[in-house]
Design a protein that fits this description.
The protein has helices at 6-14, 17-28, 41-50, 65-72, 76-87, 93-101, 122-127, 154-168, 182-185, 217-229, 243-246, 256-264, 308-321, 365-371, 384-392, 405-410, and strands at 2-4, 31-32, 54-57, 60-63, 105-107, 172-173, 179-181, 249-251, 272-281, 293-303, 328-335, 338-348, 353-363, 376-383. It is α+β, with helices and mostly antiparallel strands. The chain folds into 2 domains: 2-107, Arc Repressor Mutant, subunit A (Orthogonal Bundle), CATH 1.10.10; 154-410, BirA Bifunctional Protein, domain 2 (2-Layer Sandwich). A 7-stranded mixed sheet has the order 6-9-10-14-13-12-11, sandwiched between helices. Strands 2-4-3 form a 3-stranded antiparallel sheet. It has a two-stranded antiparallel ribbon with strand order 1-5.
């Protein structure tokens, strides 16, 4: 169907501007453009010239013979305009195109009113009237009340996402105690007892009970000898070792004790791939990038033939599967219990810079021999909470543990990988 626009309705009642112009010239004779006083003057002159009804010489508008005839005859365009107004159609397609081009007519769609089913009821189902009546369509753009269904905390969802990816990569999850002996947290990792990371400023010490008991006395002795003189590891050791300090109870400062405990109980000659995602504790000053408790993720690969190259390959796969990127680079680094050691960086597209995400290396003989491990062990780990901040695009680590309902409600259920 076609309907007149507001301009079309006006022209239908008052006449087309070009017709009104030639009628005026016919009555009054030639007129200078400056003397012409009428609405839509420019439109009238433009269309009258296109139709060959007038000529302008020295700024004076004169009527042509064709224009004189147009005064006497009814305008076909006006007739078409009237036809559309009455019937909603036009028999002359060229005139219709002209009307649409001049924005005097517009095309519309009109549908007959039909009763529609907007809501299913038991009566409608039983009567089977739904078989013959149409259903009302949903308008997905219509305003609707805000609903907040239950959903997982974004941080919990991210932890589960990474855990699932690691399991898909063939890793098995392991756990270890939150309250740990310094022996497992530090000494079994060949970390010297005077290392700055073992000071009161870097580890929470448990007040009661203060001491742990190490049931495997042979392991305890082997670690002691390794610290004192290197034992059979080829190392010179650290020269001294205090048994009492090794038995101090602390809140674990990293998740690596879970790997060490696993290795201590690993059957001789067995290969393995394990990981741990869990809470660790350090006496940091709380700010937007530091908390006193946060999460770490770390893992190991035990294999007869695994090498440092396997570690790099695994980390590349980790970056692709877990972090969602293939842009990685490795930088040499130092860690007390791995050698060689590296840090892996990924290129963060949104930040447009390289970001350090993983520390890794091969466990030293001083770590493995006291545990009775004969194979190479590849080790890697990262600050899980820091990575989550990148993933979830937040600048304050405290949001990861926030109970801010408004923030949780507005946070999208799904977010793209890095």
């Amino acid at each position: 169907m076609y309907r007149l626009t507001e301009e079309g309705k006006k022209y239908l009642s008052e006449g087309l501007p070009e017709i009104n112009l030639v009628k005026l010239i016919s009555q009054r004779g030639p007129l200078h453009v400056s003397q012409l006083e009428m609405e839509n003057k420019q439109i009238a002159i433009s269309w009258a010239k296109k139709n060959g009804w007038i000529v302008i010489e020295g700024g004076v508008i004169k009527l042509t013979e064709k224009g004189a005839k147009a005064v006497e005859e009814e305008s076909p365009l006006l007739k078409a305009l009237r036809e559309v107004d009455v019937s909603g159609k036009c028999s002359d397609e060229k005139l219709l195109e002209m009307l649409i081009k001049r924005n005097l007519v517009k095309k519309t769609r009109e549908f007959p009113e039909v009763e529609e089913i907007s809501q299913l009821t038991p009566e409608i189902l039983l009567s089977e009237i739904w078989r013959v009546k149409p259903f009302k369509k949903y308008d997905v753009n219509a305003p609707a009340p805000e609903l907040y269904p239950g959903k997982k905390h974004p941080y919990v969802a991210f932890i589960e996402e990474v855990r699932e990816k690691l399991v898909e990569m063939g890793f098995e999850e392991v756990k270890s105690p939150v309250v740990e002996a310094e022996f497992w947290n530090c000494d079994a990792l060949f970390m010297p007892q005077d290392h700055p990371a073992r000071s009161l400023h870097d580890i929470f010490h448990v007040k009661h009970p203060r001491k742990a008991e190490i049931k495997d006395k042979h392991l305890f002795e082997r670690v002691q000898k390794t610290h004192e003189n290197g034992w059979i590891t080829g190392s010179k050791g650290w020269g001294t070792w205090d048994q009492e300090k090794a038995l101090n109870l602390v809140l674990r400062s990293h998740t690596t004790p879970s790997s060490i405990r696993y290795l201590a109980n690993l059957e001789s000659g067995k290969e393995a791939k394990v990981f741990c995602i869990d809470r660790v504790f350090r006496p940091d000053v709380i700010d937007k990038t530091h908390l006193m408790e946060f999460d770490q993720c770390e893992g190991i690969i035990v294999g007869k033939h695994v090498t440092f190259r396997h570690l790099l390959g695994m980390l590349k796969e980790f970056a692709k599967e877990v972090l969602g990127t293939e842009k990685v680079k490795f930088v040499p680094h130092y860690f007390p219990y791995t050698e060689p050691s590296i840090e892996m960086y990924i290129f963060h597209e949104k930040l447009n810079k390289w970001v350090e995400v993983v520390g890794a290396g091969m466990f030293r003989p001083e770590v493995l021999k006291p545990l009775g491990i004969e194979y190479n062990v590849l080790a890697w780990g990262f600050g899980f909470s820091r990575l989550a901040m990148l993933k979830l695009e937040i600048e304050d680590i405290r949001y990861l543990f926030a109970r801010d309902i408004e923030w949780i409600r507005k946070f999208p259920v799904m977010k793209c990988l890095l």
